[in-house]
Design a protein that fits this description.
Blueprint: H1 2-8, E1 16-20, H2 26-34, E2 37-41, H3 45-54, E3 61-64, E4 79-83, H4 89-98, E5 105-111, H5 112-118, H6 125-131, E6 135-142, E7 156-163, H7 174-185, H8 192-196, H9 202-212, H10 225-238, H11 241-244, H12 250-258
Parallel strand pairs: 1-2, 1-4, 2-3, 4-5
Antiparallel strand pairs: 5-7, 6-7
């Protein structure tokens, strides 16, 4: 099954692929047979020793005994294909997408509930606003519980996160966009109008709400992604540099929360049959 999924994912001899939390090297072994090179990360010393011994004669498999959360991501283009520890799923995803060395394509075995959040459902609203202008998210494969031994108690999927060839926000405006969204969403005020009142005048806000077709009493989560992008474009055009300084640092505050290093455990789905 792993080989079939890796081939379906488009892993080829042109690719450098990262396997996070490689365990006994089952996925690493499959990737080694179809990719140009594989970087296999395993924090557990005993498992790392097993994998290092297993690939000791294979020069294009690089086996590292490192904590992924402290690892410097590759500078050259790479992909990720991995069954990651569920307990640090959010930390892993945030590092991959927000630290600047972004993979071209990512395939992660995760809990379905986590995949739903990353795709913008429920508590994932802010995350989706920050990422969907730059990445496409989808469920690449839905596992059956009998695909694993022993069977997991949760539903498991393979989440795909692919970098957009043409981002919806110009890359030179990315930092401003991230600050703007974090500033607005993280405020504890009931309506969008109240959250924007330091940036737009009342007249500007009424005009924008009319142009973008949302109610003047809308709440943050009432807006769609296209409306947010259009709202940001108005922010870039209408708001002067002094007012823009109000949003500065908002994204950094968000990152301090989402990139904190927690205890790394090996809670993850057992390998597919």
């Amino acid at each position: 099954m792993i080989r079939r999924l890796a081939i379906k994912a488009g892993i080829s001899k042109d690719d450098v692929v990262l396997d996070i939390g490689s365990g006994k090297g089952i996925i690493t072994e499959v990737l080694a047979s179809i990719a140009d090179s594989v970087i296999s990360l395993e924090l557990d010393p005993k498992l790392h020793a097993q994998v290092r011994e297993k690939f000791s004669g294979d020069s294009h498999v690089h086996v590292l005994n490192e904590n992924f959360l402290l690892y410097s991501l590759p500078l050259k283009p790479y992909k990720v294909f991995s069954n990651i520890p569920f307990s640090i799923t959010s930390l892993i995803v945030n590092k991959l997408l927000f630290t600047g060395r972004v993979p071209e394509d990512t395939f992660l075995v995760v809990q379905k509930e986590a995949a739903d959040r990353f795709m913008g459902k429920g508590e994932g609203y802010l995350f989706s606003l920050l990422t969907q202008p730059f990445f496409d998210f989808s469920v690449f494969y839905k596992f059956k519980r009998e695909d694993f031994t022993p069977r997991p108690l949760v539903n498991v999927v393979m989440l795909r996160m692919r970098k957009k060839k043409e981002p919806l926000i110009a890359l030179n405006l990315r930092e401003q966009y991230l600050d703007f969204v974090c500033y607005v969403v993280n405020q504890q005020k009931p309506t969008l109008k109240l959250r924007l009142n330091r940036l737009f005048t009342a007249l500007q806000y009424y005009r924008i709400s009319d142009e973008l077709n949302f109610s003047v009493t809308s709440k943050v989560k009432d807006l769609t992604l296209p409306q947010w992008i259009s709202l940001f474009e108005r922010y870039v055009s209408f708001v002067d540099s002094e007012k823009k300084s109000i949003t500065g640092g908002s994204y950094s505050k968000y990152r301090k929360v989402t990139s904190g290093l927690g205890k790394v455990t090996r809670t993850k789905a057992r390998r597919p049959l």
